[in-house]
Amino acid sequence: MQRTVGLVAAGALVGVLISALGTMSIGADTGAGPERTRTQLDSRAARAMPPEPPPAITYVPPEGGASAPKGEKEGKTTKGACTVDPSYHDKDTSGMTSSAAQAWTKAKEEATSKGVTLCAHEAKRSVAQQKAEFDEALERYGGDRSLAEKYVLPPAKSLHVSGLAVDVQPRASAAWLERTAGALGWCRRYANEPWHFEYHKDYASSGCPALKPHP
């Protein structure tokens, strides 16, 4: 009798073990166990990784923007747009002083003969226009006047208002004018503004003065 009970108990134990092994096998076949472990490891690794730094903020001086002329439509060049790059203007320079306007006309003719197109993205500005530009820069730089003046001058200091400055675009055209080294009466004046040129009659004979770091 005792032997029979023992055999029954042993059989029951074997059945439990077989059932347990079957459950483990199913878990292994489905990948549920390893998948949970992998997910946990991935989650821990993600928490351990430092967050990515925010992208650097680059401030673009207002005078250096490449805003398209109003009315610009894709595939078309509107009146007043630079013919070689419609993202820039080519403004009328008749508001300059007569000597500067003549020198600009001569520079454009010389450039054309070399296969280069000079566009006057900005030329003569009124006091109100220059003040608006300066006020925008002042707001952009948190009211710091000295910092704002590194990018846009107030009306009293601007040669755009005086009719003796032009912002040349596109950049390759400005680089060509810079290489003339003042021979055409125009010189780049600021290291942080490769587009900004100023006129002086003496540049043709004396060459360009050293660049200033900023206005």
From TrEMBL:
Protein name per the record: D-alanyl-D-alanine carboxypeptidase-like core domain-containing protein
Region called Disordered, residue ranges: 44-95
Membrane spanning stretches: none
Pfam families assigned: VanY
Residue ranges constituting the D-alanyl-D-alanine carboxypeptidase-like core domain according to the UniProt record: 96-200
Annotated signal sequence range: none
Record SUPFAM superfamilies: Hedgehog/DD-peptidase
